[in-house]
Amino acid sequence: MKKNLLSIVILSLLVVNIIMTAIMMFSVMGTNQKTAAIVTDIAGILQLELEGENGGGAANVSLADTQVYEIPNSMTILLQREEGETSDRYAVVKVSLALDMTHEDYATYGADIEAKASLIQGEIISVIGSYTPSEARLSQDEICEEILERVQNLYGSTFIYKVSIVEMVIG
Fold first, then answer.
1. How many CA atoms within 13 Å lie on the side-chain side of 126?
2. Cβ-based neighbours of 107, under 8 Å, separated by 6 or more
3. Would you give the end-to-end CA distance of the chain in angstroms?
4. Which of 64, 110, 114, 136 could make a disulfide contact with 106, Cβ separation 3.0–4.6 Å?
C-alpha cells in the first residue's frame, strides 16, 4: 500500500510540475515576443543611424570615384607636453586625403588642391599640435575626424570625405 501511495504522490507532483511549467512557458512566451519586437525596432533605428552617418551626410563613395591626395612632405609637429614633462615631444606625420571625384565641388577645388596644401597642412598642424603624445597615440581616429571637419570647413565643402594618417612617429 505504501508503494502505491508513494507512486500516487510522485504522479501528482509530476502533474503539478507539468502544469506549472506550462503556465510559466505561456507567461514567458508573451514577454519574449514583446522583447523580440522591441529589439527588432531598436535594430532598425540603429541601422538607420548607421546609414545616415557618413562624414557629414556624404554618400558612400566607390573606390573608382576616389582620388587620394597625399600631403607632399612629412610634417614635424610640436605636441603638447604631458603633465610634469619638461622636454618637448614631436610627431612626424604623413597624411592623405580622400577626394570624391563625383562631388559637384571637385571640379572647382580638386584640381588646385596642391596650391592649397599649405593651408591644409596648417589645419593638420593645428589639430595634432593640440594633443599630448599619449593622446595622439590613442586617438588617431579622433584626430582624423577633427582634421576632416577642419578641412571641410576650410573649403566649405564635403568633397574631401576622409582623412588618413599614413604614418605617425612620436618621439
1. 13
2. none
3. 90
4. 110
Query: Phi and psi for 150 in degrees, rounded to 5?
Result: -65, -40
Q: What is the CATH number of domain 63-170?
A: 3.30.479.30
Statement: the pTM of the whole predicted model exceeds 0.70: no
90 DSSP β-pair partners: 78
Residue 164 and residue 124: Cα distance in Å, rounded?
11
Domain ranges for the chain: 1-51, 63-170
Q: Is 96 exposed, middle or buried (0-12, 13-18, 19+ CB in 10 A)?
A: middle
Question: How far, in Å, are 51, 122, 124 from residue 161 at the CA level?
Answer: 15, 18, 15
User: Nine-digit cell at 91?
Assistant: 610627431
C-alpha cell at 62: 566607390
